[in-house]
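Handout for the seminar on molecular recognition.
Each group receives one record of this type.
Step one: identify the two inputs.
Step two: read the structure output and locate the region that could contact flavin-adenine dinucleotide.
Step three: write two sentences on what you found, then compare them with the reference statements printed after the record.
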Amino acid sequence: MSPAATQNSATFDAIIIGAGQAGPALAARLTGAGMTVALIERHLFGGTCVNTGCTPTKTLIASAKVAHQARRAGEFGVHIGATVSIDPRALKARKEAVVGRSRAGVENGLRSMERCTVFKGHAHFQSPHQVRVEGALLQAKRIFINVGGRARVPELPGIERVPYLNNSSILELESLPRHLVVIGGSYIGLEFAQMFRRFGSAVTVIEKGPRLVWHEDPDISEAIAGIFDNEGIAVRTGAECIHFDTRGGEVVAGVSCKNGEPEVTGSHVLLAVGRRPNTDDLGLEHAGVAVDDQGYITVDDELRTTTPGIWALGDCNGRGAFTHTAYNDHEIVAGNLLDGESAKVTNRIACYGLFIDPPLGRVGLTEAQARARGHRFRVGKRPMTRVSRAVEKGETQGLMKVLVDDASQQILGAAVLGVGGDEAVHCILDTMAARAPFTTLKHAVHIHPTVSELIPTLLGELQPPAA
Ligand SMILES: Cc1cc2nc3c(=O)[nH]c(=O)nc-3n(C[C@H](O)[C@H](O)[C@H](O)COP(=O)(O)OP(=O)(O)OC[C@H]3O[C@@H](n4cnc5c(N)ncnc54)[C@H](O)[C@@H]3O)c2cc1C
């Protein structure tokens, strides 16, 4: 089947806007089912994750870990001589090689996909079934929006006076900040903060809320604050009135905290205060697609928008903020359209990682969420100092905890903050996905010595939660 085309218009079975984490995989499913697909990408193939998100940050975090371990080598009886020094251009070159391969893989995959036509340019709706891109008018009965998001710029006093960085521009630096001031003590901010500290920059994290990663339980926030303190990362929480200025070529961030110095002076500022969806320049009003007050596209449980024949997948629908949730959105849509399934986004178990070192693997509810939903539950909790693999590795910071519902006997949620925590949490996630009782995992025999080995033990030590 080839798309019906006139000089400046073409009709396809489907149009996909955005080559992020859902679009390319969906294109493969739809073309595999015999449909013709127009895929439109305005910037970089692979979207945020590949180019300015997961891939570059985790690549740089790996470099930061090497620097950190090299500095600690003596603790392990290993002497490596000279002081550890960082080559920022080499870090960047390594990062770009990894990102470049991934981006090329996505683009080549799409360009060589049978029945898929790739358009490079900005997509703009003309009507519920028509999209304009670079002078061409494309039409289809089905349109899938996968436009992702970008860094939010907060309206803070003086922000226009400082040359701030975001998650994209900070990746382009070719020299290290003398003092990086990170605004935002959540996932993105913390990963950059620790990474640059390990590269040798002084780092201050400024957080408006009363603690770091305030979505997490206080014991997890506290443990993360301890990890940062051990590495000499300054943290200013409760910064309710952040404002900016410049002084003598430096950036001054006024934090107005109740305690401590009222200002922090740095060489660079990173804004890491959340994301906003790329829906403001898409012409959604011409398609009748509704958005909420933050600009996220309104979708139902099967990711259908308010206009029949148009779906929204990934970060732009506000139902997830991760690569795995965007990818799962394509599985939901493709499964329902092509395989006769009735998959629903509300069936997805929340899970994510915070890739500081040691990492946090999170799944399901926090204690605060479990209480708010009226669950009666018990908690298993263990510091990583009591996990032999962590002791052997000399990486004993953090803790693991799991919540079990009294009524259903199922696991409600867990946090594994510790070496290997991002991997170990998956046995808990899988038990939850299987809707199995916690005893299934409790009785499993895990490999010694691993971090996962202690998770059945943890489930054997459940206690009522602290009041
Ligand atoms: C610093 C950072 C680190 C992260 N780390 C992780 C992590 O470790 N793990 C994780 O799961 N998630 C992580 N994320 C989040 C993850 O990157 C996103 O959740 C994921 O990329 C969302 O995928 P998406 O397909 O919804 O959108 P995107 O990946 O943003 O893709 C959207 C695409 O649409 C294109 N587009 C937008 N508008 C138009 C238009 N009008 N016309 C044509 N094309 C358009 C864009 O150019 C882009 O290529 C991180 C994010 C950041 C910023």
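Reference statements: The longest strand covers residues 136-145. Residues 17-22, 40-44, 47-49, 53-54, 57, 122-123, 146-149, 167, 188, 278, 282, 314-315, 321-324, 326, 355 surround flavin-adenine dinucleotide (CB under 6 Å).
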